[in-house]
Structures are given as structure tokens and as C-alpha cells.
């Protein structure tokens, strides 16, 4: 039997969750001490440490709100601009053929962190789904989070 090595998923599998809001903690963290890709005046972009696909990012407002309608127009515009920046970075670094972009609003809608609004951006490629999730219940992520973070940060630094 082949084995897939994904040690970063053990916290998810064992249910160990950090206390507090991951987005608020990321907004306060230094860029080198976290999974942050970049920060702006009103928003943050960070790696999803339990990704659906390689390059899965999340963009969130720095303000702890649970819905879009609780952001003022400057915060809302910044959130969308940072979403576009994240998409541009992923396009440059990973060259996906498409994206899934979405907001899960509320627990019933699938939000794992319903208290802090965030937008998922998931790069997609032809053939990126295969038999593994269907037969084996396993998704293969082909790049380490650390390597991806370095590549995205380097690309961001070159454009900003």
C-alpha cells in the first residue's frame, strides 16, 4: 500500500483547534510568523492550512465581522481588491486554469469559522480531481505550505 505523507493535517484530524479567531490572530501577527501571504490597510490574505487544493487562500477583513453588510465601503472595496491581488498572485505563481471563489455565510452554509467573514479562493486545473477523493477519501496536495508561502510572498514583494 502506498502512503501519503501530510503531517500538517494531524491537528485537523485530531480536532486540535487554536482558541480565538485565526483571522484576528493573523491580522496581529508579523508577516514572518504566520501563514500570511500579505496584509493591506483593511484586509489580510493567508494560506488555508487545511486546503481543498494546492494554493487555497483565504482573504478576510481585519475587522472581526461575520457578514459583508457589516463592512463600510472602504473595507468592502479593500477586501475585493485584495481578493483580486490574491488571484493575480496565484495566477502568476501556480498558473491555474480557473478558480473557485466563494463565501460561506453562517455555519449552516458551511463556514468553519462563522464569526469572521472570509473569502476562499481555490485554484483549479483540468484533472485536479481524480479517484483519490472518491475511492480513498484522500486529497493529494502536491506542494508544502511553506514552499507555497515563500513563492507567493516573493511574487507579492516583486509587484508591490
Polypeptide structure, described:
It is a single chain. The N and C termini lie far apart (46 Å). The chain has one domain: HIT family, subunit A (2-Layer Sandwich). A hairpin with a 3-residue loop joins β1 and β2. The protein is built from five helices and five strands; from the N terminus they run ααβββαββαα. It is an alpha+beta fold and 160 residues long.
Features:
160 residues; HIT family, subunit A; 34% helix; 16% strand
Strand order of the largest sheet: 1-2-3-5-4
**Radius of gyration over C-alpha positions, nearest whole angstrom:** 16 Å
The CATH superfamily turns out to be HIT-like
Distance between the termini: 46 Å
The pLDDT mean sits at 84
| Dominant shape | globular
- What's the number of helices? 5
Total number of strands: 5
Structural class: alpha+beta
* Strand-residue proportion: 15-25%
Q: Tell me the helix content.
A: 25-40%
What is the name of the CATH class?
A: Alpha Beta
Would you give the CATH topology? HIT family, subunit A
CATH architecture: 2-Layer Sandwich
